[in-house]
Structures are given as C-alpha cells and as structure tokens.
Amino acid sequence: MPGLAAKPIIDIVLAVADPADEPAYVPALEGEGFVLRVREPHWYEHRLLKKPNANVHVFTPVCPEIERMLAFRNLLRRDDTERELYLHAKRDLAARTWKYVQNYADAKTAVVEEITARALAAERGS
C-alpha cells in the first residue's frame, strides 16, 4: 500500500466452504509453494499457509474476520490520517527489541482494533 511501511509479505484472504476439509484446497496451495503452518479450529476454522513472500489466511465465506480484515485495508487505502496513525504505531514498535515476532504483532493489537472499529463503522454507515 503506497505510503505505508511494511514487510515485503502479502497477506491473502481465502474463503473456502470448509477450512477443515484441507484435502480440498491445501494440495493446490502446496503446489504453489505454500506450507500449512497454523490450524485454529477454535477461531473460525482459520488456517494459515505461508511461503517466504506471502501468507494465505483461510476462513469460511461467512466468517466475520474477513469483513474486519477488508474494512481495515480499505480504510487505510483511503484515509491518510488512519494510515499515518498505523504507520507511526508500527515504526514505534519496530524500533523496540522483541524476543519473538509475535510479541510485536500482539503489541499492534490496540491500534489495529481502534482503526478496525472505525473502519467497520464507516463501511456500515454508522
């Protein structure tokens, strides 16, 4: 996204009828170099497949997380103020030392949730 510092990894959202039915979609993604890394049946049947420059998040078509992710992305694309807020938070957190990458990701949660709430309200016309 122009104007936003980011790692060179793209996140892709894939909706499939049943994420637990891994034989229906995982082999095709493996054929493209992805490796199944995460199974979270307790969280919308989420699956995460990775390769060096991309992550594929797999959910069901009606999963509310898809709406959240897309609303967040859309707001950052169209709103300079929101994009600057997120950029500032990311730069501040990136300047710190983290034992695990997940700690950095967890530290971003507050600003991501804040922006996502505004994004959802905007998309729903609230």
- Give the neighbour order of strands across the main sheet: 1-4-3-2
- Dominant shape: globular
- Proportion of residues in helical segments: 40-55%
- Rg, Å, rounded: 16 Å
Got a strand count? 4
- Unreliable stretches (pLDDT < 50, length at least 5) are none
User: Largest sheet, described in full?
Assistant: 4 strands, mixed
- Tally of domains: 2
Question: Beta-sheet strand percentage?
Answer: 15-25%
Distance between the termini: 26 Å
Query: Mean of the pLDDT scores?
Result: 93
Please trace the helix and strand order, writing H or E for each element: EHEEEHHHH
Helix/sheet category: alpha+beta
- Number of continuous helical runs: 5
Describe the overall structure:
This protein is an alpha+beta fold and 126 residues long. It has two domains: 10-59; 64-123, no CATH class. The chain has five helices and four strands. The protein is globular, with a radius of gyration of 16 Å. The two termini are 26 Å apart.
